């Protein structure tokens, strides 16, 4: 009886079990509605990404016109053709060098601009090249690397520095008048008299090979040298005048003097005295020159220094990488500066209080804290340089383009730039995709780890 009452009481006092509503999706919509909204994006993704990748893989298994199945033959050609191997090698150089240099410069700029009052203006100037297209940047640097110092900025700077520390030739391409002169070529561009000279008998050194109106400065008329007693004297002049006429080997009216020509007296292969010609072309050597041969060193007539062949086969790839660094250093600086703004300054100050110098703070505190940002910049640039095409195609001149070739350019040349081999071009595209995928996988994995934190 008591048990039945207890059960009755317990049943009466029990709370009703609440009904559980059906679980909804996160967005609160049904699956078919989500698919409907995602369908346009999926169609675009499939038509612009998935289909081209699939078609490229299929096309890479066929020959140039697509009529014959060649299997992996195109991939074999990629790694046996000299031009393609050069492109692979240069792409590897780009991937190793360019991202590292850009990231390092961006890090340096970001750290240093925090310590100057005009840091914002500096960041703006460094970032400005990012507003320029690759095409425009290529045209700019094609002019910068122009071989002629009068047109190319790079060689204008190089020649200016070179001429500051090295004497330039006075009269390039000038030579003795072979009909009347005793001067003969003696190696390394120099000219030496066949006979010896004696004091008191002026020496005549007529030169030709340069137009009177092309002489440097404001040349004056040449004058015969007066006998110098125990000294050896003479005259260096241009044995030619506009309009012609006059006597060969003699100083005629309106024939111009050659100022600044170095003259050496040589005995037994040793220079015993030297001097330079004056404004009127005359020179005077001491008594030690008596009985010596006179030599005009090749430095008087050497071709002028015209700088460095930036776009030659040896330097074309480093030169183009330099233009890429100029463009993307601002990108790296801005991203790293944003990461640097989030660094806890208390850690830096604590390190300084403990006795660390600025280099130790930078190397052991700042760089490790910026490691995630640096990896983002580095990986992004690695993906970017694998696809570099514009700069190489525009900057490298035709004679050096083979030495500067990269995979993206080789893809274009094989398929559309006259090669017409779409099978080989598709194979190169697939290889580029396979090279990019590991870098993308590393980047995606890192992003997932960052979200989990």
Automatic annotation (TrEMBL):
Tell me the PANTHER family matching this sequence.
BLL4140 PROTEIN (PTHR43227), DIACETYLCHITOBIOSE UPTAKE SYSTEM PERMEASE PROTEIN DASB (PTHR43227:SF8)
Task: Give GO BP annotations, semicolon-separated.
Answer: carbohydrate metabolic process; transmembrane transport
- Where does the chain cross the membrane? 31-53, 92-112, 124-145, 325-344, 365-383, 422-444
Q: Which residues form the ABC transmembrane type-1 domain?
A: 88-443
Q: Which InterPro entries match?
A: Ig-like_fold (IPR013783), MetI-like (IPR000515), MetI-like_sf (IPR035906), UgpAE/MalFG_permease (IPR050809)
A GO cellular component annotation in the UniProt record? plasma membrane
Taxonomic lineage is: Bacteria, Bacillati, Actinomycetota, Actinomycetes, Kitasatosporales
Q: The organism sits in which domain of life?
A: Bacteria
- Where does this one sit in the cell? Cell membrane
Q: Sorted alphabetically, which PROSITE patterns does this protein's record hold?
A: ABC_TM1 (PS50928)
The protein's topology relative to the membrane is: Multi-pass membrane protein
Organism of provenance: Streptomyces ruber
Name recorded for this polypeptide: ABC transporter permease
Ranges for the region named Disordered are 1-24
* Similarity comment: Belongs to the binding-protein-dependent transport system permease family.
Keyword terms, alphabetized: Cell membrane, Membrane, Transmembrane, Transmembrane helix, Transport
Coiled-coil annotation reads none
């Amino acid at each position: 009886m008591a048990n039945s009452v207890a059960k009755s009481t317990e049943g009466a006092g029990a709370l009703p079990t609440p009904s559980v509503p059906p679980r909804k999706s996160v967005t609160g919509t049904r699956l078919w509605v989500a698919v409907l909204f995602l369908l346009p994006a999926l169609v675009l993704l499939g038509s612009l990404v998935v289909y081209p990748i699939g078609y490229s893989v299929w096309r890479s298994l066929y020959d140039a016109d697509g009529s014959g199945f060649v299997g992996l033959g195109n991939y074999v050609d990629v790694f046996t053709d000299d031009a393609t191997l050069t492109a692979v090698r240069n792409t590897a150089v780009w991937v190793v060098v360019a991202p590292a240099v850009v990231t390092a410069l961006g890090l340096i700029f970001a750290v240093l601009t925090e310590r100057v009052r005009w840091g914002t203006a500096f960041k703006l100037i460094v970032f400005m090249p990012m507003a320029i297209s690759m095409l425009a940047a290529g045209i700019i640097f094609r002019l910068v690397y122009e071989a002629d110092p009068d047109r190319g900025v790079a060689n204008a700077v190089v020649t200016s520095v070179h001429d500051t520390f090295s004497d330039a030739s006075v009269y390039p391409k000038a030579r003795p008048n072979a009909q009347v002169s005793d001067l003969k070529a003696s190696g390394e561009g120099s000219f030496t008299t066949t006979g010896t000279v004696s004091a008191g008998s002026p020496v005549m050194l007529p030169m030709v090979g340069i137009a009177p109106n092309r002489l440097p400065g404001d040349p004056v008329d040449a004058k015969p040298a007066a006998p110098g007693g125990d000294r050896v004297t003479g005259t260096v002049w241009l044995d030619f005048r506009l309009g012609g006429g006059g006597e060969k080997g003699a100083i005629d009216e309106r024939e111009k003097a050659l100022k600044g020509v170095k003259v050496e007296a040589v005995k037994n292969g040793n220079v015993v005295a030297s001097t330079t010609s004056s404004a009127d072309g005359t020179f005077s050597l001491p008594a030690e020159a008596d009985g010596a041969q006179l030599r005009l060193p090749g430095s008087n007539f050497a071709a002028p220094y015209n700088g460095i062949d930036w776009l030659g086969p040896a330097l074309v790839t480093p030169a183009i990488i330099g233009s890429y660094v100029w463009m993307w250093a601002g990108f790296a600086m801005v991203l790293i500066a944003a990461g640097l703004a989030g660094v806890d300054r208390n850690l830096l100050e604590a390190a300084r209080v403990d006795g660390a110098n600025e280099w130790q703070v930078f190397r052991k505190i700042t760089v490790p804290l910026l490691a995630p940002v640096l990896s983002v910049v580095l990986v992004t640039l690695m993906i970017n340089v694998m696809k570099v095409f514009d700069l190489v195609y525009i900057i490298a001149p035709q004679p050096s383009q083979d030495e500067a070739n990269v995979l993206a350019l080789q893809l274009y040349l094989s398929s559309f730039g006259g090669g017409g081999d779409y099978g080989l071009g598709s194979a190169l595209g697939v290889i580029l995709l396979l090279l990019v995928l590991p870098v993308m996988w590393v980047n995606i994995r890192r992003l997932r780890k960052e979200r989990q934190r």
